[in-house]
């Protein structure tokens, strides 16, 4: 079946080798055999963490081998410095500002010739500058990081200025095929008039547990101990992470909006915010004080035969993130646990929506989406 | 936002301009403005129906304009011959065998240079020959027609020999992103160990109505009068259409199997088959005689807290199509009406599957999937 398949080598430069980035390197090692059967060779030419850039000696011809990639994963798991890898030889280390210059050198050398996929697995707002420069140098961009796409609209426009060379599936619903589905519906000329989704596994889990009669504070604490929440659960409860995903979807539909244009209902009030109390105080005092209000809203919804879900709604001129009462027998209403669900309504999917559901978080799944994006881009280089 | 976007012109040759093909031409006209904004121009150079090929005068430079494409749709709606369009000028008509030669001429001229998308919207087994030849000539293939992919494995291998140049999303679940989702999961190195799906809107509708206590025969007759079934409902009840979709999915997973390897449970027995009785007799006598058996199976499932669904299952070494008892609270068990549902199980989607749900039939939705495939292929020509 491989008869006639030409092989393409895809150079990859990875920004961020923490959770998702590290998992991506694992996936690249594990799937190398599979991809070579389909004529694709992934060549990792460099990895950048918050302190330095580690690159192969000759970026034009070399890539880290599997043993080296595995060693990077091991080093990063133990929170050690990439410099520990210099002993392996055939690589170079650059620190801070020098690292940025070197990345642009690599982008300049490879971007327009063989193509270079610059893969952002950080959670930083600081990568947007270098990403924009690599776009100008002809590179492809793959994002797990939502922040570059949720900056100002000018930055966004720049990043997607060559729409064929950017992929960002893992920014919404991790590896779930949400972006590709929206893109395909739009490409078919089918106008999307509504997207509604539960895009936070954490908040999905919390709301379905609360519906079962448990107290909000206890469920949040349980979610925290299960590792479902951020260290400060307010990072989830604020809704800002969902708002970023909503903005990415809205902009994909062509909406010219910014974060400020999204109505975000936080699950806690300002008096319980990070500026007013510590995480510890929030968990001890702030969180339990929210129980009654949440319980009343759940009961009120239930008395109307509905359930409460924390969703994003993109419809008409409205992009909104917060608690909504939804029919029990809708895909969102039936949602249990930490799955994500997205309902897409268009001319073709009017009476019943196009629904995508599944695990929408986790390093493994997110990295899987990133790798599928990298592979998808290689069509450009045949 | 279009700054820096280069325009690519995609020549399209359409085989079959009945239901789906006609709808595709409508979509192309309706979405032309949208695509040109993204740098894609679709140029329809010819349309082939069962009798003849109508092509533009100069396939290297011309395409049918929107007025002409609309006229093709009008002519085909009224079951008239494409020859009626000769009056419009700037086009040529070729009959039968001459048409095949001409298609290969066009494929030879455009295949390797600008790319040519040969789009099969027929329901015929007879296109496989010409499709294989156009593959050799460097053309891209887009299929709504399941039959070329469900022929012998040699034909299949030939068609997918250049995997980057074939798309067939609409063969399974119409426009639903099933193929692209499976492809992405595989590309990420995430092994799929189970696919289970309800891939017949007709049988989905029938089984959920029967579950509500209606008799099987009455539901099938109602479905027929709503236009949900083929003229002879046995074409749906045989399960062969579902089996074709199952084979396409299994082969996508790398299984080297043929139609014969699929265990297909028909909803009627041989004594009620097309060789034994006419459609009319089947509807009058055969169909009601099935009521009791179906009712008993539904009741037996219900007594075990389960529901009966007509599904395909691809798992282990088994590819099976037929009625299965499923948990009421699974995505498939909750299925109502004519929606398709596919559950994909893999390492990333193990505890709860990746689920895709929505309308999985209809000319509009099917043609939308075909158009999204055509647009997806244009990345190859930048």
UniProtKB/TrEMBL annotation, chains A, B:
Catalysed conversion reaction: L-homoserine + NADP(+) = L-aspartate 4-semialdehyde + NADPH + H(+)
Binding site residues for L-homoserine: 230
Positions bound to NADP(+): 16-21
E.C. designation(s): 1.1.1.3
A biological process from GO: threonine biosynthetic process
GO molecular function, one term: homoserine dehydrogenase activity
Alphabetized SUPFAM superfamilies for the sequence: Glyceraldehyde-3-phosphate dehydrogenase-like, C-terminal domain (SSF55347), NAD(P)-binding Rossmann-fold domains (SSF51735)
Cross-referenced InterPro entries: Bifunc_Aspkin/hSer_DH, HDH_cat, HDH_CS, HDH_short, NAD(P)-bd_dom_sf
Keywords from the named record: Amino-acid biosynthesis, Methionine biosynthesis, NADP, Oxidoreductase, Threonine biosynthesis
Binding-site residues, NADPH: 122, 146
Pathway: Amino-acid biosynthesis; L-methionine biosynthesis via de novo pathway; L-homoserine from L-aspartate: step 3/3; Amino-acid biosynthesis; L-threonine biosynthesis; L-threonine from L-aspartate: step 3/5
Keyword field contains Amino-acid biosynthesis: yes
Cofactor: a metal cation
Sequence ranges assigned to domain Homoserine dehydrogenase catalytic in this UniProt record: 177-375
Keyword Manganese found: no
PANTHER family: HOMOSERINE DEHYDROGENASE, PTHR43070
Family that this chain belongs to: Belongs to the homoserine dehydrogenase family.
Name of the protein this chain belongs to: Homoserine dehydrogenase
């Amino acid at each position: 079946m491989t008869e006639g398949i030409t092989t393409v080598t895809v150079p990859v430069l990875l920004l961020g080798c923490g959770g998702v980035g590290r998992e991506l390197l694992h996936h690249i090692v594990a799937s190398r055999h599979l991809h070579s059967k389909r004529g694709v060779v992934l060549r990792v030419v460099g990895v950048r963490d918050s302190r330095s850039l580690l690159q192969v000696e000759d970026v034009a011809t070399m890539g880290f081998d599997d043993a080296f990639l595995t060693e990077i994963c091991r080093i990063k798991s133990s929170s050690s410095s990439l410099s520990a890898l210099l002993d392996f030889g055939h690589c170079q280390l650059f620190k801070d500002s020098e690292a940025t210059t070197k990345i642009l050198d690599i982008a300049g050398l490879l971007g327009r010739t063989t193509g270079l996929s610059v893969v952002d697995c950080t959670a930083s707002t600081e990568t947007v500058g270098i990403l924009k420069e690599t776009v100008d140098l002809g590179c492809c961009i793959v994002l797990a990081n939502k922040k570059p796409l949720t900056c100002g609209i000018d930055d966004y426009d720049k990043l997607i200025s060559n729409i064929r060379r950017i992929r960002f599936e893992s920014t919404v619903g991790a590896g779930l095929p949400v972006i590709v589905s929206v893109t395909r519906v739009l490409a078919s000329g089918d106008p999307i008039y509504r997207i509604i989704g539960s895009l936070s596994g954490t908040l999905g889990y919390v709301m379905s547990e609360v519906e079962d009669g448990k107290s909000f504070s206890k469920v949040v604490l349980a979610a925290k101990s299960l590792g479902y929440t951020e260290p400060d659960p307010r990072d989830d409860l604020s809704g800002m992470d969902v708002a970023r995903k909503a903005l990415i979807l809205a902009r994909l539909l062509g909406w010219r909006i910014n974060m400020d244009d999204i109505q975000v209902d936080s699950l806690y009030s300002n008096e319980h915010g990070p500026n007013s109390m510590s995480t510890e105080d929030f968990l001890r005092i702030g969180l339990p004080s929210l129980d009654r209000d949440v319980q009343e809203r759940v009961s009120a919804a239930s008395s109307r035969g509905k359930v409460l879900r924390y969703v994003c709604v993109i419809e008409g001129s409205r992009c909104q993130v917060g608690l909504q009462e939804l029919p029990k027998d809708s895909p969102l209403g039936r949602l249990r646990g930490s799955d994500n669900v997205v309902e897409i309504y268009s001319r073709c999917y009017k009476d019943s929506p196009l629904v995508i559901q599944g695990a929408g978080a986790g390093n493994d799944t997110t990295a899987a989406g990133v790798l599928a994006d990298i592979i998808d881009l290689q069509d450009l280089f045949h």
